[in-house]
Amino acid sequence: MTRAEIFRIAIDGPSGAGKSTIAKKVAKILGIDYIDTGAMYRAVALKLIRQDVDAFGDQDVLNDLLTETVVDLDGGRVLLDREDVTDLIRTPEVSAEASRSSAAAPIREKLVSLQRAMGMTKSVIMDGRDIGTNVFEDAEYKFFMTASPGERANRRYKELKAAGAPDSFEDVLAAIEKRDYDDSHRELNPLQVADDAIMIDTDSLNIEEVSELLLSYIDR
After folding, report:
1. Is residue 211 part of a domain?
2. What is the pTM of this model?
3. Which domain holds residue 161?
4. What CATH number is attached to the domain comprising 87?
5. At 209, which helix (H) or strand (E)?
6. pLDDT, tens digit, for every residue of 11-25?
């Protein structure tokens, strides 16, 4: 395998496409760090909800909140101000707020700066909405993973059901479709396919097949 000593793998795509699952698996195989950027936005969204702060309201209040906010990723866990919020950030309420608040410039500036710094000194794989189009436009490897709204909603519904959440499939599907619209229509760094990204539809592929497909492109 011929690669630069430090390389970045960017995986973009809509909610529920399987980005995080695949990124974690590929990171483990390659022995590099996995950075869940979506979890970082979710963590900030959780704090906004808890403190009843509007990302598009008083910007001084928002900036003060961001200044005192610490988001860290440690061994697959998501820490918000040293609290493990890994499970708390996966609710539909937090997902919706993350999609909305991630369009706020101060939030994006803070988290994108952290993300870029993470990829400057070591090889990483990142998944999100704008990794290949904004965070790492010069990433050595770019992928765009997608799946039909129905398939993505079914995956998320099973996860929530296993966790004991009362959400119906119809509610999960509606939330997925709304987030797709919000993510692709926001003014700042909307979800879109990078010109040089490799498209991967995961509708009919399992985790192993998708992982092998990504690795086959990286091996080249």
Report:
1. no
2. 0.81
3. 8-202
4. 3.40.50.300
5. helix 207-219
6. 999 988 999 899 999
